Structures are given as C-alpha cells and as structure tokens.
Amino acid sequence: MAEFSINIDRLIDIVSRGGTVKTGVDVRNDKGVLLLEKSVPIHSVNPLLVVKKYGGNTLPIDFSTSGGVWDKAGNPVSFYAENTIVKENPEKSLPESIERKIKEINRKKAEASEKYECAKKNIKKVILEIKNSGGEFDTGLVEDTVTDIVNFLALDDTAFSHMTREIFSYDDYLYNHSVSTCAIGTSALIRFNEKFSEIINNHLSTISIDTINSNGDGNHPASSFVYYLPQDIHDISLGYFLHDVGKVLIPENILNKQGKLSEAEFDIVKKHSYEKGMEILSRNKLDNPFISNCVKYHHGVLFQGEKGCYPTNLHPIEMPPYVKICKLSDVYDAMTSKRSYKDAFNPVGVVTEIFRKYANQDRMLQFILRAFVKAVGIYPPGSVLNLTNGQMVYVLDSDGPMVIPFTDKEGTPLFHKSDPIKIGESDENPENKLEIDRRHPLKSPIEVWDSLPEYLKVSVQ
Ligand SMILES: [Fe+2]
Ligand SMILES: [Fe+2]
C-alpha cells in the first residue's frame, strides 16, 4: 500500500479519543527538523498539534511499513470509505487505465456536446421557421441532424450518457427537450431492437388478445413486431425529435404558465400532439407513420386505465413499442430537466417512479423499460454525484458506480488525486459506508467546474 496523506484534524480527533497513530515514515518540517519519528506510536495529541503548528494540514502515513492508525480498542481505522481524509501523495499519478478512461470520457463528452449544440441550433432554426411560415420548415436540415444523432448514439453503449447531461444547465426548454427526448428515445430503441426484439416476437406469437385485454374490448388485434431496420430507426428518431413540434403553434402564455392550467387551457395544450403536430407534418409532407405516430400518440395510453392520456383512441396493445419508448423518454426528460418553475428531479427517483408506474402493467412494457433503463444509465460516466457524507464524486464507470471523490465532506476541493472507489463496497464498517445522496440531482462537471481538480478537467486534444 502506498503512502497516504491523512488530514491532521482527523488524526487529532482519533488520538484525542484514545486512538494511536504511527507514521511509518519520518516527518520533518521544511527546515529538516525531525518532528515525528517513523516507528514511535503517538498516543497524545501534542506532537500532532506541533506538526499542525508548522503548517502540516496532513500527515503522511506509510501503511506499507509500520505505519497505521488505530482506534481506542486497537482496531485499525480504515480511511478508504472516508476519502475526504485520504489524500494521496500529489505526485502519485492515477493508474494509466484510469487516466485513459477519464480522457475517453472527456473526448466523448466533447463530441456529444458538439452534436447536442448543433442539434439544438437546428431545432431552434426549425421552430423559428415554423413560427414565421405558420408550419413549413427545412425538413432536410432535420433529417441531417437526426442522422448525426443516430450515428453517434449507435457508436457504443455509453454514447448516450454523454449526450444528455448538459441539459441540466439550460432553460431553452423546447429545444433541449427535443434533442434530449430524441437522444434518450433513440438510445433506448437501439437497445430494445438489439436485445429484446427476438424475445418479444416469441412472446407476441403465443399471446392471445383476451389475456391482455381483460376489459373485453376485443376489437384490437395484437400488433406484430418486427425488427426495426436502420431506416426505420432513423425515421422513428425523427419522430422523437419532432414529437412536440406542435407546441410551436400553442400560445406561449399557456405553454409557459407557471400555475395550474384551467381545463380549457389544458384542452388547448393537448392539441399540440394529435392536431397541431399532425398539421405541421402534413404541411411538410412528412407522412411516414413512424414519425406521425410519435407526434400523435406520445401522450397516449400505455396501459388500460392510465390517467391523463390523450388521444385515447389507440388501445395500449396497438401502441407500437417505439411510441411507448417515445412516451417514456418524454416523461423522463421532462422530469429530469430543470425549468424556471421547478428543479430537476434526480434521475434515479424518476426511473424508480416510471418503473413503479409501468413495470407491472404488461410484459411488453417490462421489456421496453429494461431497454430504457439500460439506455438511460442511472449514473452516467462523467457525471457528478453527491454522497450522503457531503463529498462530491466524479463517476468513472456506471457499474457500481465506480467514482473518484474530488471534495471533502465540507465540499472543499481536494487537490490531490484520490483512488477510484466502488460505492457500496467501500468499507467493512457500516458507519463508513459510502452512499449516494439521492436528494440531489446528478450534475454535469460544468456545474461544479470550480471544485473540479485539473486532472478531471483534462482537455481533449
Ligand atoms: Fe408532448
Ligand atoms: Fe414532450
């Protein structure tokens, strides 16, 4: 084990409670005067106060020799779980694989951010065109934008997680919402298509309408499901991108109203999908059903009896999987976005809520939700989380998640590199167990830029 620099106040606290510290390394002041001898156990706070007086805010402990810290009962104190006090030697660099990972995350984020901004600029242009013309827009520009997004998201499993994080810092809601819903939906669709299409095909071939439609409304044939071809995915993605386009024709004072909408106002808002959205599509001769179904039914009914849906003429079993994904992505993005009148909800809470509401309704929805949750990635690499102990951590890998702490418990930046740790596996002592503070939304590193150490900001050439 390497040499660590431990916060001196923490050590003073341990010793004052009857604990013992042994450095395992000679500690000298900057004039070379020996302050602590490496093999002498410290049972009193005085020597530590002397080190502190000489400006030592941390004390080196070499755990690989005779160094260590013990509590009153003689049990070794582990500092892994409370990374605020484990500051590695600043000269020590992170393992090369970790450095590479951080660099890769930053490279993907930069690319995603560029795509995101470009898509946002284009939807802004389209919305302005629709406003000016009453409905027409440059469909070629939208096609190109969506192609770019789909290609990026198809690159690998983590592409999406880099695409949507920046939404938390902006408030151009409709633009961000169009791009994000498209990114979330497309990413979920790609996974759904790859992983579950076969299972669902088998499932649908054995299912009887009566087993699903318990209310006896047997007029709806079970929709068959085929693998979505690349061109289908592109068209569906276009549908996701344009799903709310009808909102451009809804009066802004109603759309942005902060209080509760009256029934009459809500009736007007509802029209953005099945009426205004469809009107815009038809004015631009976009009659592809993949696109129009997303626009028309993205507030449709996912299970029998679901409240607040519109239009209601499509039975849940008739609702194609890609439209269900559109609806879930729409809900997810709306809830996790920051608006002028509300904070962003934590994605974990949102996913849990979506799961609770939909997962038990039917098996098809379960398959879709699995793809959706996989795509959303609860703790995306490159995002920032708060822990219940007050620290902020940078997510290196969503599996775990594996994180790098970069502040102490007071939120003060650590300027030394910390070892990556896996949440939940941190310590044998439950009191030191690290947990994610779910009351806080995920943040993008940009939001905590000032607290972020240089090695996490590492720019991408
Ligand atoms: Fe909508
Ligand atoms: Fe929407």
Topology:
Layout: E1 3-7, H1 8-16, E2 20-22, E3 27-28, E4 34-36, H2 45-53, E5 58-62, E6 68-70, E7 86-88, H3 96-133, H4 139-153, H5 159-163, H6 173-206, H7 209-212, H8 230-242, H9 252-255, H10 263-283, H11 289-297, H12 321-336, H13 347-358, H14 363-376, E8 384-386, E9 392-397, E10 402-405, E11 421-422, H15 454-457
Antiparallel strand pairs: 1-5, 1-7, 2-6, 3-4, 8-9, 9-10, 10-11
The protein binds fe (ii) ion (FE2) (2 copies).
List key phrases describing it.
461 residues; alpha+beta; Hypothetical protein af1432; 2 domains; 4-stranded antiparallel β-sheet; 3-stranded antiparallel β-sheet; 15 helices; binds fe (ii) ion
The CATH architecture of the largest domain can be given as Orthogonal Bundle
- Any idea of the CATH class of the largest domain? Mainly Alpha
**Helicity level:** 40-55%
Largest sheet: 4 strands, antiparallel
Strand content: 5-15%
Question: What is the total domain count?
Answer: 2
SSE topology string = EHEEEHEEEHHHHHHHHHHHHEEEEH
Bound molecules: fe (ii) ion
Q: Give Rg in angstroms.
A: 27 Å
- List segments where confidence is low: pLDDT < 50 over at least 5 consecutive residues: 83-91, 209-223
Strand order of the largest sheet: 8-9-10-11
CATH topology of the largest domain: Hypothetical protein af1432
